[in-house]
Specification:
The protein is of the alpha/beta class. Helix content is 42%, strand content 12%. It has a domain at 62-195: 3-Layer(aba) Sandwich (Rossmann fold). It has helices spanning 41-60, 79-89, 97-100, 107-116, 127-132, 138-146, 161-167, 169-172, 184-195, and strands at residues 65-70, 94-95, 118-125, 152-156, 177-178. It has a five-stranded parallel sheet, with helices on both faces. Mean pLDDT is 82; it is low at 1-22.
């Protein structure tokens, strides 16, 4: 049985778990006691290194956006916009191409700046993203940057980690969140809790 406790000097004691949602729920140290969402032990284990990176970045660079939303172009008016809107409603500062990519601005330069100015990257893994990744487009370049540290949270939506593993084993090796286990609203709440710094 996987467990998490806020004991210890840094509040990071936990035992490793897999990606499955079994095993009950845990409250990570970054989730307020009044939070209505629950986390699986596996989610706590996979999100803890991301949280630690967020805390380091928040101290070193307090002006950063909370997250960069990487998505397939085809999802920009659908699932990506839904996630963006839910995150913003929860107080998360999101870099999102539909909002932050101005007319006439070189796309790769804007994306590079967005990645550099964000604490973490969210990768919305959809069937459209899986279709685009083998073509090595913009999303592939974004993923390369995000995979370089503990700054990446994949969010699987409308597909599976198995399908992702067939296309991108590196990305599939990162545990994340899945809208087949949580609604998009709950996923957004978990991300909001993950990136919020409170005392």
């Amino acid at each position: 049985s996987s467990s998490y406790s806020s004991g210890g000097s840094n509040g990071n004691s936990f035992s490793s778990g897999g990606r499955s949602s079994g095993g009950g729920s845990s409250r990570p140290r970054w989730s307020r006691p009044s939070s209505a969402v629950s986390y699986t032990p596996a989610q706590v284990v996979s999100l803890t290194p991301v949280r630690e990176a967020i805390e380091r970045e928040a101290v070193a660079r307090p002006d950063l956006r909370d997250c960069f939303l990487c998505h397939a172009w085809d999802d920009r008016q659908g699932a990506a916009k839904q996630l963006h809107d839910l995150l913003e409603a929860a107080g998360v500062r999101v870099w999102f191409s539909e909002k932050d990519l101005g007319l006439g601005v070189p796309m790769m330069r804007a994306i590079d700046k967005g990645l550099a100015a964000s604490k973490i990257g969210l990768v919305l893994v959809t069937p459209a993203l899986l279709a685009r990744l083998p073509k090595e487009g913009v999303a592939d370049k974004e993923l390369s940057t995000l995979l370089q540290g503990n700054r990446l949270v994949p969010i699987v939506h409308g597909t599976t980690y198995t399908a992702l593993r067939d296309v991108s084993p590196m990305l599939a090796s990162r545990s994340g969140l899945d809208t087949s286990e949580d609604t998009m609203a709950v996923v957004a709440t978990k991300i909001a809790e993950l990136v919020s710094i409170w005392s």
